[in-house]
Design a protein that fits this description.
The structure is a homodimer. Chain A is of the alpha/beta class. Chain A has helices spanning 12-21, 31-44, 46-57, 70-78, 82-100, 139-152, 170-179, 189-198, 215-224, 249-260, 275-288, 295-305, 314-324, 336-340, 357-362, 398-414, 418-432; strands at 3-6, 107-110, 116-123, 126-130, 156-160, 183-185, 208-210, 229-230, 238-243, 267-272, 307-310, 328-332, 348-351, 388-395. The interface between A and B is large, with 124 and 123 residues. Chains A, B: Its cofactor is Zn(2+).
Chain lengths: 433, 433
């Protein structure tokens, strides 16, 4: 049974606050282990990576076997049935079309003082993408990480994917091929992050590392941050569905379960303005939980972290949504655009009754790497901007320096930075001579 | 004496690599202390903040004295001489004009399948800005952090600035007033970061924290990252000047010294295609180091981390610049725009002989909070984007779902996520009925 809340209950505020602050994930403290692994890879390079891969993935590698060969990739890709291949290609095409539009423009202008100002975007030279092995090895995540990088213009894109006991998901290799990935290494864990960040004899270092991973991978990414850039550290997935009574309860139930089935720590919340509809959805979820393949996981998530909140009206729903700041927000109402205007903190919004969140996981076009754990209050999903950086540009003419230089020198002096002021004054002195 | 390198020397590559990897800063390990302070502030709120402020800043506060009053701010602001006030206002106006142009557009379009896609930018609701007290208390940094936040539309902007022994820089308060800051607290250190991140009885929590600080502040920002957003963790400042022989050696020397005077760990590098000019600049630096107020700091920085590199030609200079990925890059050459096109990794570029870096510190318009320690390879200076987040939007019509839904269901199945697939198929079933 999920929690049932009603904004008209006397204890609603306390119960809702508790829901917001509930800790859903206990990350094991693996920081010391990870620090040792990173130090080992920095010191011994390929030898350390090979040893650690033998230990954790039971794979005996050599330096020339760290990377998949083009033949291996082609062979695996050829194993993928036509339906999946077509679906991956459609997804890639739509994701690419969406992300191309994100490319930000450069700018340059000359202001009334004669200063020419602007900025320029350039791509990160080399990026690494971590792809989990085993259960959580999702080809869709390969597309969602690799395509923005390639659209941004990343020259060299490397993937690290562990292949425990030699197992590899052919769809992951096909997705990498479709996305234009340049190198694929069969390594994982903290050792893969260290190899990408610092390089080894075989693997050249990258400038930015993205992609999901387990506690070891997350801890390693935190540790190498600064040496390289990283994306967010993602927590368990979440969905908030705001639905009026005019929805099929089973559709909403399935949308809630499509997050719950990810992980026992996932969270699915329904907000509705109709108490009877709330009960209908709860019943529909129970019915689906009798037969879903992943009913054990989904059921645990729903029991421990699921919630159904009944509100007086949809504006109350929007206010609660802003406090939740959900990763995924579905608006199954008559005027979803109108309601969306009031929902200002959310990773992604799915509008209307025919836009289940799962569309966004695969083929919608927007990225499915999104801020979790209320971080949509201050951060955004993955985009081409994560693989670009901006250089600001400024050029003063002598006239511009005459106009604004004295103010710079004045402020430098007030900050006791004499050389700053002199660097301006020396030029002004020559101009005034 | 700085290091002299020449790309024609046999050992150049080894010397340049050593220069790139030289560790310039030893951060003391204050992580345990900081963890204890954060836990204390979370547990005891105002009481902990007040105790820690008494201990570290020798200031006895009460909850109602944590914030400066409007009267206190007005009184301090009135103490600032007119020249400084005018300079701050000019700087604020130019910084605002630059950052307004950074506001990114929203987007919405309907694709051939009938899917309406897009994104929307919204501001972070509340932001906190840390301002160091004492020596490194720079009013210019208040403008550089606060103005982008206000341009982005941050509703509530709070400053934390320690006032050891009651000392406060009136220019900092005036800068905050000019920039439209809403709250100013006389607290500092890890306790200030904890108070901003988690809130206390008096201080409401914020969503994002930016601004420079000492090792305690940096460690605290790392620790609260995830609970709130943070900007970069800045290292010591750097400048790379690329200059041909047609420059006044004293101007270039002053530009080099304007970074060196910041900090003994700062780094100033000159690259020139003329060996005689290299010597002239070295001599000019030595001369300036006889009289500069901050000659002890600047001299140590120049001796320990300064470098003068002679190259065959300017294209070689650009290649080295890209490996350095400098925070500040000055191009004192005849065709600075042409050379800038080859310099793809830099935080900010200053073009031509009349654009000393110090202009950019105060009144140029672009932000002076920039990526250090080679992180310009993958990150950008502070901008309005740091105070905005993007929500992606998607709306499917029934026709769009019919067109692309089957591919989503196919991929969901291949990832063994049954509920994902069913959430799409249930809708398709109804549409096909």
């Amino acid at each position: 049974m999920p929690q049932f809340l009603d904004t008209q209950d006397a204890d609603f505020e306390a119960a809702f606050s508790a829901l917001l602050s509930a800790k859903r994930e206990d990350s094991p403290d693996v920081d010391d282990t990870v620090a040792a692994i990173i130090a080992d890879v920095r010191a011994r390079g390929d030898a350390a990576v090979i040893e650690l891969t033998a230990k954790f993935d039971r794979m005996e590698l050599t330096p020339d076997r760290l990377a998949f060969t083009p033949d291996e990739i082609a062979t695996a890709a050829a194993m993928v049935p036509a339906a999946e291949r077509d679906a991956l290609e459609l997804a890639a095409e739509r994701i690419r079309a969406y992300h191309v539009r994100q490319m930000p423009p450069d700018a340059s202008w000359t202001d009334p003082d004669g200063a020419t100002l602007g900025w320029r975007w350039t791509a990160v030279s080399a990026a690494g993408l971590y792809v989990p092995g085993g259960l959580a090895s999702y080809p869709s995540s390969v597309l969602m990480n690799a395509i923005p990088a390639k659209v941004a213009g990343v020259d060299r894109l490397a993937i690290a994917v562990p292949t425990p006991d030699g197992q590899v998901n052919p769809l992951v290799l096909l997705a990498a091929k479709i996305a234009g990935v340049d190198e694929i290494y069969r390594i994982g864990g903290a050792q893969a992050i260290a190899a990408l960040a610092y390089g080894t004899g075989t693997i050249a270092p990258v400038d930015k590392i993205t992609g999901p991973g387990n506690a070891f991978v997350a801890a390693a990414k935190r540790r190498v941050f600064g040496k390289v850039g990283i994306d967010m550290i993602a927590g368990p997935s979440e969905i908030l569905v705001i639905a009026d009574k005019d929805n099929d309860p089973d559709w909403v139930a399935l949308d809630l379960m499509s997050q719950a089935e990810h992980d026992e720590s996932a969270q699915s919340i329904l907000i509705t303005d109709d108490a009877d509809f709330a009960q209908l959805v709860a019943a529909a979820v129970d019915k689906r939980l009798e037969t879903l393949d992943r009913r054990a996981i989904a059921g645990t998530s729903w029991r421990d972290f699921g919630a159904i909140i009944t509100v007086r009206d949809l504006s109350e729903a929007a206010a609660l949504s802003n406090r939740i700041a959900p990763e995924h927000l579905e608006l199954c109402v008559n005027d979803p655009e109108g309601l969306a205007a009031s929902c200002v903190h959310a990773g992604a919004i799915f509008l209307g009754r025919y836009t289940p969140e799962a569309i966004g996981d695969y083929v919608g076009g927007p990225n499915h790497v999104l801020p979790t754990a209320r971080s949509a209050r201050f951060s955004s999903g993955l985009s081409v901007l994560d693989f670009l950086k901006r250089t600001t540009m400024a050029r003063m003419t002598p006239e511009a320096l005459r106009a604004i230089g004295p103010s710079a020198a004045c402020l430098a002096q007030s900050e006791s930075l004499e050389a700053h002021g002199l660097s301006v004054r020396a030029r002004l002195d020559q101009l005034n001579r």
